[in-house]
Design a protein that fits this description.
alpha/beta; 14 strands; N-(1-d-carboxylethyl)-l-norvaline Dehydrogenase, domain 2; six-stranded parallel sheet; Rossmann fold; 17 helices; binds uridine-5'-diphosphate-glucuronic acid
Length: about 425
């Protein structure tokens, strides 16, 4: 078992640190936010992620998991240092690498023994070579530091499960020895390891996210055509997915992809390609389709209620997907803003994300304590996130509306059941019930 430091306790860093401690390594997570570090030392997770808090508490108790704000302390004795700080999107869509570069300098200043530096942050192709140069140029002691790329493929909401059940772990390294050590560290996860060069590993991350985003935009386009032809996109996706070359995952039509990864990484890859004078036309289309898709829900609502002024609209679900409180790039940001601008009274409900939502959404938004309260007396209900609590709601809850009109951006309900319950229902790429 190894002594490991993880720099950055955002979503990727924290899950990485906690799961590495779970398989027996001694892990110190480093973050500059003192308040956050104090909470984490008590076993409190700063993000909502099923299973994470329990696993944190267990490993803190076993003295395998530590949190600190002091780099020196974290790097002391660390054989391996993971970089997991953010790479936020710049105005032009490119990734801002200031945090990563600062960590490289901190590592160079503080390491006292030969170390492997593993980059988990999603960084443009060529960045790991740059990290290696920064470290080499700034090394305070005469030690050897080997930089490797180990991109992250976890999904929010199922990150702990994914750590132990992932499809692959990608390791990009110039040194066979370093790659073997990273492979050995990860062995207890029981996930296959794919070893390659550094640049290819960096590209695998972007290409994977871009491909998944492409699948989503593709099925969303098909859904828009299905609506016009009276076909059912769910049946189409099921029929397509039976072909193993296509696969049945990530073919759910909806209101477009959101979150902290797909929107950022697709735009960054367009930039990366542009930097080497390549016009990534397909991916530009994927991004454009995604923006269009978010607006279609409001268009459907306006077809039914052309004047939204003074209309009470229930919004069910605010997070970018279920099982997370993450609001980054959620469709709800665009949808609620448009509703309020059109003069509607918007009453929103989300099982987990409301606290985060209140910090960023328009102050005019009202919040309800449940689906029932949100739809009560409303003129229309919009479904933005497919939470189980929304999917499994008793359909007679919609009797509380002035007139039962449901516009569903996530295909949560069965068309037959909506018909039986006499609810006017418009979903994505499926026949409407009027
Ligand atoms: C995504 C990838 O799935 C992970 O493999 C990757 O590690 C992660 O980005 C990252 O780069 O860190 P995540 O953003 O957590 O994970 O969420 P996903 O479950 O992939 O969903 C992304 C968005 O696509 C959501 O808004 C979701 O509603 C939407 N989506 C997903 C669809 O509209 N249709 C689908 O069929 C699947």
């Amino acid at each position: 078992m190894r002594t490991i430091a993880v720099v950055g306790t955002g979503y990727v860093g924290l899950v990485t640190g906690v799961s590495l401690s779970e398989i027996g390594h001694t892990v110190t997570c480093i973050d500059i936010d003192e308040e956050k570090v104090k909470r984490m030392q008590q076993g409190e997770s700063p993000i909502y992620e099923p299973g994470l808090s329990d696993m944190m508490s267990k490993n803190i108790e076993k003295k395998r998991l530590f949190f600190t704000t002091v780099h020196e302390e974290g790097f002391k004795n660390a054989e391996v240092i993971y970089i997991a700080v953010g790479t936020p999107e710049r105005e032009d869509g490119s990734a801002n690498l200031a945090f990563v570069e600062q960590v490289a300098k901190d590592i160079a200043a503080n390491v006292t023994q030969d170390t492997i530096v593993v980059t988990k942050s999603t960084v443009p192709v060529g960045t790991n070579d740059r990290i290696q140069s920064i470290i080499n140029e700034n090394l305070a002691k005469n030690v050897k530091v080997e930089v490797a790329s180990n991109p992250e493929f976890l999904k929010e909401g199922s990150a702990i499960y994914d750590s132990f059940n992932g499809d692959r772990i990608v390791v990009g390294s110039n040194s066979e020895e370093a790659a073997n050590i990273i492979e050995e560290i990860n062995k207890p996860f029981g996930v296959p390891v794919f070893k390659t060069g550094i640049k290819s590993a960096e590209m695998i991350k972007y290409a994977s996210n871009a491909f998944l985003a492409t699948k989503i935009s593709f099925i969303n386009e098909i859904s828009n055509i299905c609506e016009r032809l009276d076909a059912n996109v769910e049946d189409v996706a099921n029929g397509m997915g039976m072909d193993k070359r296509i696969g049945d995952k990530f073919l759910n039509a909806g209101i477009g992809y959101g979150g902290s990864c797909f929107p950022k990484d697709t735009k960054a890859l367009i930039q990366i390609a542009g930097n080497v004078k390549y016009d990534f036309e397909l991916l530009k289309g994927v991004v454009k389709v995604n923006q269009k898709q978010q607006g279609l829900l409001i268009e459907k609502l306006k077809e039914r209620l052309p004047d939204l002024k003074g209309k009470r609209i229930a919004v069910l679900g605010l997070a970018f997907k279920p099982n997370t409180d993450d609001m980054r790039e959620a469709a709800s940001l665009v949808v609620t803003e448009e509703l309020i601008n059109a003069g509607a009274d918007v009453v929103a409900y989300d099982p987990i994300a409301m606290e985060n939502a209140k910090k960023i959404l328009n102050d005019e938004l009202q919040y309800a304590n449940g689906v029932e309260e949100a739809v009560n007396g409303s003129d229309a209900a919009l479904v933005l996130t497919e939470w189980d609590e929304v999917k499994n709601v008793e359909l007679d809850v919609f009797d509380r509306m002035a007139y039962p009109l449901v516009i569903d951006g996530r295909n949560c309900f069965s068309i037959e059941e909506m018909k039986e319950n006499r609810i006017e229902y418009h979903s994505v790429g499926r026949p409407s019930v009027s």
